[in-house]
Each structure stands twice: as C-alpha cells, then as structure tokens.
Design brief:
By secondary structure, this protein is of the alpha/beta class. The chain folds into two domains: 147 residues, NAD(P)-binding Rossmann-like Domain (Rossmann fold), CATH 3.40.50; 106 residues, Dihydrodipicolinate Reductase, domain 2 (2-Layer Sandwich). 32% of the residues lie in helices and 24% in strands. The chain has seven helices and twelve strands. Strand 10 and strand 11 form a beta hairpin. Helix 5 runs parallel beside helix 6. The longest helix has 16 residues. The protein is elongated. The protein starts with a strand and ends in a 7-residue tail after the last strand. The model has no long low-confidence stretch (mean pLDDT 96). Bound molecules: NADP nicotinamide-adenine-dinucleotide phosphate (NAP). NADP nicotinamide-adenine-dinucleotide phosphate binds next to helix 1.
C-alpha cells in the first residue's frame, strides 16, 4: 500500500508542529507540503524548530492543491482559515482532517453537504485526545441521571474561540439525553454581566483563559446531597496526536463528514 500523502496547514503552530513530528514518525505517512501565511518558498527543514523534512511551504493554498498531489489536509490554523481551507480541500478532492475549532453550526452543515455531494470523507474533531472523548461520553451517560450540570473549560490564553469546541460538543452530547432545564434559581439575576457563563439549553459553560494551561475541562453534576465531577486534562499537545493519526487513517475510507473522534472509535 502506498504512503498517505499529507498537507499540514498551520505548521508553525503548537498543534501543527506537533502534527509534523507525529507524521515524521509514521512509516506510512508522508508530508508532501505545508500551508502557512509566512515562509512561502521555503521548505519545512529551513525553519529552525521544525522537523528536518523536505516538504515545500505554500502561502496560497489553492496553488498548493494545484501543484501537489495529496490525500489528506490536516488543518490546525484559526476558525476563519480552517473553514476556508476545508472547503477548498474538498473542491480539490483532498480529504480534510480538521482540528481547528470554532466552526459554526451553519459551517458544519455546509461542510457536511459538500462532503456528501463530493462523496469525500471529512473528519472534524473538536478534541483529538482519547481521554477527552471518554470524558465527553461519560458526561453524556451521567447527564441521564444528573440533569443539573455546568461545564468549566480552561485553556491557554492564546486560544481564539470561546467556549471551546470541546465544551460545545459536550453540551450537544448532553442535550441528546437531558430534558431541557434552566440551571440555577429561576429568579437569579446577574449583577455583573457574564457571571453565570454562557447558556446552552439552560446549561452553563464557563471559559477560563490563563497562561500555563493547555486544555482542561470539568463537567460538574449536582444532585441531592452529592456532586459528581468528570475531569480531563491535556498536559501537552502530544495527547492530541493519537487522534490525529487515527483520523488521517480513517478519513481515507469515508465518504461523509464525521464530527467528533468518538464516532471513529470502536
Ligand atoms: P497556534 O499555535 O496559534 O497555531 C495556529 C497556526 O496557524 C499559527 O502558526 C498561525 O500563524 C497559523 N496560521 C494563521 N493563519 C493561517 C493561514 N491562513 N494559513 C496557514 N497558517 C495560518 O494554535 P494551536 O494551539 O496550534 O491551535 C490551532 C487550532 O487547533 C486552534 O483552532 C485550536 O483551537 C485548535 N486545537 C484543536 C485541538 C483538537 O484536539 N482538535 C487541540 C488543541 C487546539 P501565526 O501565528 O503567524 O498567525
């Protein structure tokens, strides 16, 4: 079987550079190009802190797709560019694996439709860490019995979107099993705007941003005389790479959008 040819968008980023190191270690993966908004014309190996790989860097993603044959685009950029890159990849017949968070519901539906029209696989995973996927699944299970729930997510302060994609995904999974309920006292009032966090279907999401953090989430359930907290911590970005690798392998045989790593696990 031939190697899977991969383009990485966002190679200098914290996630993108980790993805390059993961790809370098796999015998069946080949980095064929990178897309960055800087360093066009250089190769990955020309950038001091990146792996010694000969792949060219393109600033124009369309030019990259036109000149380089690839199977998969791994996108780890920003919400604005991630969406644009995903659409263009599908137009050029390249399967996207998207870790970039912050896609709106409308954007997800559009990508789903495009994937179906083109019969091409797409994986969009708000969290590639297996432990985080389990945390979300355990939370969904617990919400059946504990409808009182609040989500607290904590991330580094360079994160652009809030709440995190993981928190949004968790709330969506919980909504599948929880009867709609407004959290807190029916007459509660915020004397400081935002004190009670964001509201999803009556559930509250609180976003903390501090240097030193990576990606962390607690889902807190309360009931009569007891609380249950389900907690996950990514202590470094290598934690996400098992999921990126699995998604690249699986996307090759998909013809639809798969949203969430849990849908790729046995
Ligand atoms: P980061 O360190 O800021 O990396 C983003 C990179 O994208 C930067 O190098 C940035 O360059 C580059 N970039 C910006 N615009 C670009 C464009 N048009 N084309 C190509 N590259 C571009 O952020 P990160 O922590 O790696 O996170 C990247 C994304 O992954 C975010 O959306 C984050 O929320 C998400 N994330 C997902 C997971 C998951 O498991 N799914 C886990 C962690 C993070 P400049 O710095 O020069 O602007």
């Amino acid at each position: 079987m031939s190697n899977t040819k991969i383009i990485v968008a966002g190679p200098r980023g914290k996630m993108g550079s980790e993805a390059l190191r993961m790809i370098e270690k796999q015998d069946h993966f080949e980095l064929v190009a990178c897309v960055d908004h800087k360093n066009g014309g250089l190769a990955v190996k020309d950038i001091e802190y990146l792996p010694n790989l000969d792949a060219p860097i393109y600033e124009d993603i369309e030019q990259c797709f036109q000149e380089v044959e690839a199977d998969v685009l791994v996108d780890l950029t920003t919400p604005e560019f991630g969406y644009k890159h995903t659409r263009l990849a599908l137009e050029y017949g390249v399967r996207p694996v998207v870790g970039t968070t912050g896609f709106t519901k409308e954007q997800l539906s559009e990508v789903e439709q495009m994937a179906e029209d083109k019969q091409l696989g797409v994986v969009i995973a708000p969290n590639f860490a297996i432990g985080a996927v389990l945390m979300m699944q355990f939370s969904k299970w617990a919400a059946k019995y504990f409808p009182d729930v609040e989500i607290i997510e904590r991330h580094h302060d360079n994160k652009l979107d809030a709440p995190s994609g993981t928190a949004v995904k968790t709330s969506e999974l919980i909504q599948e099993v929880r009867d709609q309920k407004k959290q807190g006292h029916p007459d509660e009032q915020e004397t400081l705007e935002g004190a009670r966090g964001a509201d999803v279907d009556g559930m509250k999401i609180h976003s903390v941003r501090l240097p030193g953090l990576v990606a962390h989430q607690e889902v807190m359930f309360g009931s009569t005389g007891e609380t249950l907290t389900i907690k996950h911590d990514s202590i470094n970005r290598e934690s996400f790479m098992t999921g990126v690798k699995l998604s690249v392998e699986k996307v090759l045989s998909l013809q639809v959008l798969v949203y969430g790593l849990e849908n790729l696990l046995e």
